[in-house]
Design a protein that fits this description.
Length: 327
């Protein structure tokens, strides 16, 4: 595959970025090496090299710019859906390490913003079922017309039984070409489906380790909303394709924020909680009302209950100087 010079220069420059505070410099690939391997292979090999760095997990979970460089580079190189799947799988497994026990909110905010920009070229390009049907019908008609043009001659040569057998074999071949095994790589969209699943796994892992900066509490609720509405954008770009998956992500975010409030909520003033209540009650944080399953406690009720409890603790401390025990 020929690589344009701008891609060579882009790869060379972007892959030499230095992690903030880590001092770990990625090895810059030589131009000859880039020409020997495809951009996708070189891209993954460079990322694997970074994953093997001792402190990569810490920097990736605290500094969004490091991941932003690689996700942006993948888009610029036009990596395949298979390569993007492998990239996000490598990243997910690396973030399971003990050096990434806490994933700071700006990293997840970046992920939900950049992922649809980076991979929507895959998720939005899959053909609809109606398009597949139209193409299938046109192809079948063309093949059948070609076959029956010489049907008389074929019957004379091969006999009716031979022609019927040949026709049956052709129909079977056509069917196999249109209906490959959905669990094999020959299936159109196989790697896109795996990519979608892997992205959701990455997001779930990130939410389970998500943490906000308590000293900057004024912006915490805005951050929660940014992540939640980012999930909606993933749906718009068909990265997340089912309401159940969106509901799962929103539930994970709701419970993680509740956990954060129980862990750090005693540090915040009552005005912090009043602001959240105002946004929820007046519909500014509409994502909290999204529900799929009937009969269970809603995200809104779960979160408002915790906010009320923490607000009462904050008010007690502000009035009496005594912090009630957490419930």
């Amino acid at each position: 595959m020929k690589i344009e010079m701008k891609y060579l220069l882009s790869s060379f420059l972007m892959m030499t970025f230095c992690f903030v505070g880590g001092g770990a410099l990625a090895r810059a690939p030589q131009a000859s090496e880039l020409l020997e391997e495809s951009p996708d292979q070189e891209y993954l090999q460079e990322f694997i090299g970074l994953c093997n760095e001792n402190h990569f997990g810490f920097h990736a979970s605290t500094n969004a710019s490091s991941l932003f460089e690689y996700i942006s580079l993948g888009k610029e190189l036009g990596t395949s859906s298979k390569t993007d799947y492998e990239f996000f799988r490598l990243l997910t497994n690396r973030l399971k390490g003990v050096d990434a026990e806490v994933i700071m909110a700006p990293v997840l905010e970046m992920l939900v913003t950049q992922i649809p920009l980076a991979i929507s070229r895959h998720t939005m390009s899959l053909k609809s079922w109606s398009s597949r049907q139209e193409e299938m019908q046109a192809d079948l008609e063309s093949r059948m017309m070609h076959h029956f043009d010489g049907i008389v001659t074929q019957i004379q040569v091969a006999g009716r039984l031979g022609v019927a057998q040949k026709l049956s074999e052709q129909i079977g071949t056509i069917a196999n070409s249109y209906f490959p095994d959905p669990f094999s790589e020959s299936f159109d969209g196989y790697w896109v489906h795996r990519l979608r699943s892997q992205v959701k796994t990455l997001l779930e892992l990130s939410i389970q380790r998500l943490m906000w900066e308590p000293s900057a509490y004024q912006g915490i609720w805005n951050s929660v909303n940014k992540v939640a509405f980012g999930f909606y954008n993933l749906c718009n770009e068909q990265v997340v394709c089912h309401s159940d998956d969106l509901d799962d992500l929103l539930w994970s975010l709701t419970y993680r924020f509740k956990y954060f409030l129980r862990l750090m909520g005693h540090q915040f003033p009552s005005s912090f909680y009043k602001n959240i209540e105002f946004h929820i009650v007046n519909g500014y944080s509409s994502w909290i009302s999204f529900e799929v399953d009937a009969g269970i406690r809603t995200k809104k009720s779960v979160l408002l209950e915790e906010i009320f409890t923490q607000k009462m603790r904050a008010l007690a401390y502000e009035r009496n100087g005594i912090l009630p025990p957490a419930v």
